[in-house]
Amino acid sequence: MAGSMLTYSTLMSANEGTETQAMKIVARRQQEKLRGCLMLPLAFVYFVLFCTSIMLHEDISDVYMIESQLRGQMDDIFGEVEDMDSLWDAIQGPFSEMLFKQTDMYGRALSKNTTSNKWGDWGRVLRYNQIQGALRFQQTRNVSSTYGKAFQCNSEISCFLCRSNRGFQPAYLNQRGSSGFVVDCGNWTSSRRLEPEEGIEQAHLGRELSQLQPSMLTSLPDEKTDERDVFRFYLYPSESASRTAERLQYFRNRVWLDKDSEVLQIRLYLLNAELGQPNMEQVTLKFFMSTGGSIYYQRDFQAVFFEVFPNMSSMVADGLFFCVLVFTGALQMVVLWRAARERKLVQHFMDIRSILEFVVIIVGIYFCYQFYAVFQTKERTTDIVNEIRAKGWDVTDDDQSVIERMFEIGEVAAEDILSLRLLAANYTLILTFRFFANFRAQPQLAIITKTLGALIVEIIHFIVVFIPAFLIYVTSATLLFGRKIEDVCTFEGSLGYIFRMAQEGEFDWESMQEENYWSSAIWVWSFVVFVNMLLINLLIAIILDTYKDSDLMMQPPSTPTTLALS
Fold first, then answer.
1. Residues near 251 by beta carbon (within 8 Å), at least 6 away in sequence
2. Residue 476 counted as domain residue
């Protein structure tokens, strides 16, 4: 096949008279067809090897079983929370009971086995997971200064926390020691709960909690990351449940969360070495305190796998994928050199197939680089987890520097792996477009690519009409229904809600009519008629009409000259 392509290239470069023009046309068509026939199976093999390589690195089914259980548990715990007091009740009650399980169903203490391969049943979460290091509570406030009120301590834990002012001063001061802020830890009775300043109680007790919609993020306080702006404390799975409860009660009594709190983050790492590949699950709960008095919570789970190559099949698939990537790059360099030699570089890059091939190669090389970066991150994560686990069940407040280093490395590892996962998902879309571009080699499949190419101009014209009408309904929906429906209370949320209405034709009429019946009815009727019935069906008609024209163009005319050249 490669020899045939070289022969056709030689014929096309011939400089004889006009009698060779017909032969050049035939040679050009045959060269394009052979190129397509070569690239189509190569694109298919490349796609299969890439998907196989990715799937062998991800233990998706086991991760789903872990994360689905955690999502269900978190929603059950925080789903009924209505204000700040009930949030503290949920944290001190079912949340702590789930994470710090230290007795069995008969009330007997679970074992702490610190051998090299078993850690006992102490602190098991959902049977197969254990917290690594500590559980971190971190908040950002609109005032980045040390705070805290007088408190009478009556135990080792409460006196240590009170005198060091842990959690009530910026995080960077926890490592330095005293900040010069003197706390009175002996002027208040131990049974008396600290009364907030006037107005504070009404501010935080009136907040209601609901699950966060992504569109609401732009309307809520931003989470800060600077050590001077965050306030944090830790809970340790190695401590007894009574000491953990005492820590939580101390922070609740001293009103750690008050009217100046903006974002509360609870983060922990669960190690699972018994289901499939050993992995560490990063669990993050965020509570956003809006100025309107509501609390929104968001849950996020990210799996960090420790084994870069879980088995030999993974290494083989990675090796084959890399070889095909190198072969594809070398082949495109040869084609590029030939185009440069024939002074057809501009024509070469005007071909969508050439552009897609170079995009595939460049993104493939970047993906390999990202994979190597994830490999380095996993090595650092493994080292810090081993350092934490070497301490056994003796992790205390004295180890906060090591624990915080684990949180920093774990966060970087989770972000890198998430970026690689998103890159892989989007890369498959690029490979799909590559398939369509190489369909030209087969006449029946070429109808699809011809239709898509011809649709570009038609779609642009349609968008010029559709976008203004769509944005008008988005804006009017926010103004008309934003006070009643959470999905359209922001412009970003209204974009998604109205697009779903345009595609599915479903809407919450019961909530819409509460604002103004006739205004809502006119809005809904006009949207259904103009967008759902006219514009969407017009788009379908454009696609069908373009496909019909492309099909007719692909039919060869029955003339002797054309038959001779086909």
1. 137, 161, 167, 233
2. yes
Burial class (CB in 10 A: 0-12, 13-18, 19+), 372: exposed
More confident position, 435 or 241: 241
Do 416 and 533 belong to one domain? Answer: no
CA distances from 234 to 167, 205, 378, 389 (A): 9, 24, 24, 17
Q: Give dist(CA 296, CA 298) in Å, integer.
A: 7
Q: What share of the chain is helix, strand, coil (3-state, %, to 5)?
A: 60, 10, 30
End position of a domain, from candidates 406, 433, 460: 433
Which pTM does this prediction carry?
0.74
Which of 272, 287, 305 terminates a domain? The answer is: 305
Q: Is the pLDDT of residue 56 over 70?
A: yes
The answer as to whether 32 is a domain residue is no
Residues across the chain: 566
**pLDDT digit string (tens) for 450-505?**
777 777 788 888 888 888 888 888 888 888 888 778 788 888 888 888 888 888 77
Domain range for 525 is 445-565
Contacts of 191 (CB under 8 A, 6+ apart): none
Same domain for 512 and 543, yes or no, is yes
Domain shared by 452 and 411, yes or no: no
Do 259 and 376 lie in a common domain? no
Buried b (16+ CB within 10 A) or exposed e, 299-313: bebbbbbbebebeee
Which helix (H) or strand (E) segment holds residue 498: the answer is helix 491-504
**Count of CB atoms situated within 10 Å of the CB of 130:** 20
Total domains in the chain come to 3
Cβ partners under 8 Å of residue 140, min gap 6: 221, 223, 224, 229, 230, 231, 261, 262, 263
DSSP states along 430-444: HHHHHHHHGGGGSHH
Return the DSSP state at 103: B
The model's pLDDT over 513-557, given as tens digits with 9 standing for 90+, comes to 776 788 888 888 888 888 888 888 888 888 888 878 777 766 665
Q: Is the predicted pLDDT of residue 188 greater than 70, yes or no?
A: no
Would 14 be classed as within a structural domain?
no
* Local confidence band at 30 (pLDDT 50, 70, 90 cut-offs): low
Determine, yes or no, domain membership for 134: yes
Per the listing, tokens 């690594």 go with 132
Helical packing angle, 312-341 and 352-389, nearest 10°: 150
Compute the half-sphere exposure of residue 286: CA atoms within 13 Å on the CB side of its CA.
19
Q: Do 344 and 468 share a domain, yes or no? A: no
User: Dihedral of CA 121/125/129/131: which sign?
Assistant: negative
